[in-house]
Specification:
It comes from Limnochorda pilosa. It catalyses: (S)-4-amino-5-oxopentanoate = 5-aminolevulinate. InterPro entries: 4pyrrol_synth_GluAld_NH2Trfase, Aminotrans_3, Aminotrans_3_PPA_site, PyrdxlP-dep_Trfase, PyrdxlP-dep_Trfase_major, PyrdxlP-dep_Trfase_small. Its main location: cytoplasm. One of its GO terms (molecular function) is transaminase activity. By secondary structure, this protein is α/β, with parallel strands linked by helices. The chain folds into 2 domains: 160 residues, Aspartate Aminotransferase, domain 1 (Alpha-Beta Complex); 246 residues, Type I PLP-dependent aspartate aminotransferase-like (Major domain) (Aspartate Aminotransferase, domain 2, 3-Layer(aba) Sandwich). 36% of the residues lie in helices and 14% in strands. The protein contains 14 helices and 14 strands. A 7-stranded mixed sheet has the order 4-10-9-8-7-5-6, with helices on both faces. The chain has a 4-stranded mixed sheet with strand order 1-2-3-13. Strands 11-12-14 form a 3-stranded antiparallel sheet, with helices on one face. Strand 11 and strand 12 form a beta hairpin. Helix 2 runs antiparallel to helix 10, helix 3 packs parallel to helix 10 and helix 7 packs parallel to helix 8. The chain is globular, with a radius of gyration of 21 Å.
Length: 436
């Protein structure tokens, strides 16, 4: 089992990328997988995941902190989840009917998220956000949406206005192909600043259907809300007659068993879920109190459908994952490893004379190459992209796999060990020194 070095072969990945370029747009099926923002070239083509590690087509092992962009929390191929999928798959992959498993996962989510009385599953977080916006418009009879600069909520038309993450990585302002009328109904504001929201709601509140927010931002790094910010946001939105949508696709079950909204003592009107609740399988969900969900067909006039919604394999994997997350001490361990990794990165950068900001919450980490605080998207934008690209390459060569973007979060999983973290910090110390 080899570890990548500066001279390690990547011939297999390069050949696969060459073939992919001829048959897939840009050679990838999601732009966030491209290495365009970190110097280009062939991304590593992974063939296997096991615990905290990924293995590429050239046989190299990497300590993985991409973790499926946050969908993985138990590690790759955890036995309990894999066994659940094995158990269900032989009975049929798709029925197009209700199944007992979806009822069980419905019940679990409603039980642990107090703001949610009823749930609807989709096949992705993008679909769930898209439908949550439609539901808010149906409930309020209003059309405008308030969102926040740099926050990514999937790739449906309205939320691609001033979106972050993959958009910012590729230097794209707004997606082509969005009609002007869609953009006119979206207002994007700076996160963590309540005054711009107050002004917009004062002037246009009668037209605003919903305020859509990641309660803890996970798409321009990891940025928690300033004290009192979310509370003021909810209060101001409700005073204007708008619903509050919390996008918890990344945050739910990431920092504790349930939604992160509970940490702040808040109850949004609609909650969007995804990633972890599928245990590594495709999934999305949205939920709300009964009077809002009663508008969803077949009970009400707001339509949402999906052949893959409530897919049996996703339900089985999700239930197994959520059951595994009940393990005593699991979240405390993620917090401990996250703190060690974050502080170790700060120390290593300091010794190398490289200015950085490191944010950490639970097992989630964000590293910014800047000496300035990062409280919003503009702060992330000002961080040094070129230094990140060089750091990314240096870490990859030393066997540490990160997202190829300065806007993404590092995710520690339950499969990472203290030894993995220490090896990562040794690689980071070398990588920081190489930036001179």
């Amino acid at each position: 089992m080899s570890h990548p070095t500066r001279s390690a072969s990547t011939a297999a990945s390069e050949d696969l990328f060459r073939r992919a370029l001829a048959v897939a747009s840009g050679g990838v099926h999601s732009p966030s997988r491209s290495y365009a923002a970190v110097g280009g070239g062939a991304p590593r083509f992974m063939v296997r995941g096991e615990g905290a590690y990924l293995f590429d087509a050239d046989g190299h092992r990497y300590i993985d902190y991409l973790s499926g962009y946050g969908a993985i929390i138990l590690g790759h191929a955890p036995e309990r989840v894999v066994e659940a999928v094995r158990r269900v798959a032989p009975d049929g992959l798709l029925f197009g009917t209700p199944t007992p498993l979806e009822v069980e996962l419905d019940e679990r989510l409603c039980q642990v998220i107090p703001s949610v009385d009823r749930v609807r599953f989709t096949a992705s977080g993008t679909e769930a956000v898209m439908t949550a916006i439609r539901l808010a418009r149906a409930f309020t009879g209003k059309t405008k949406l308030v969102k926040f600069d740099g926050s990514y909520h999937g790739h449906s038309d309205p939320v691609l206005v001033s979106a972050g993450s993959g958009f910012s990585t590729l230097g794209i302002a707004d997606s082509a192909g969005i009609p002007p009328g869609v953009m006119e109904d979206v207002i994007s504001l700076p996160y963590n600043q309540i005054e711009p929201l107050e002004e917009v709601l004062f002037r246009q509140g009668a037209q605003v259907a919903a305020v859509l927010v990641e309660p803890v931002v996970g798409n321009f790094g990891l940025v928690p809300p300033k004290p009192g910010y979310l509370e003021a946001l909810v209060e101001q939105a409700h005073a204007a007659g708008a619903l509050v949508i919390f996008d918890e696709v990344i945050t739910a079950f990431r920092f504790g068993y349930g939604a992160v909204q509970d940490r702040f003592g808040l109850r949004p009107d609609i909650t969007v879920l995804g990633k972890i609740i599928g245990g590594g399988m495709p999934i999305g969900a949205y939920g709300a109190r009964a009077e809002i969900m009663d508008l969803v067909a077949p009970l009400g006039p707001m339509y949402q459908d999906g052949t893959w919604a409530g897919h049996p394999l996703s339900m089985a994997a999700g239930l197994a994952c959520l059951e595994a997350l009940r393990e005593e001490g699991l979240y405390a361990r993620l917090e401990r490893l996250g703190r060690r990794l974050a502080q170790g990165l700060r120390d290593a950068a300091g010794r190398a004379g490289v200015p950085v900001q490191v944010h950490q919450m639970g097992g989630a980490i964000a590293l910014y190459f800047t000496g300035e605080p990062v409280d919003d998207f503009a702060g992330c934008e000002r961080s040094d992209s070129e230094r990140f690209a060089r750091f990314f390459r240096a870490m990859l060569q030393r066997g540490v796999h990160l997202a190829p973007s300065k806007y993404e979060v590092w995710f520690v999983t339950a499969a990472h060990t203290e030894a993995d973290v220490e090896q990562t910090l040794e690689a980071a110390a070398e990588a920081f020194r190489s930036l001179d």
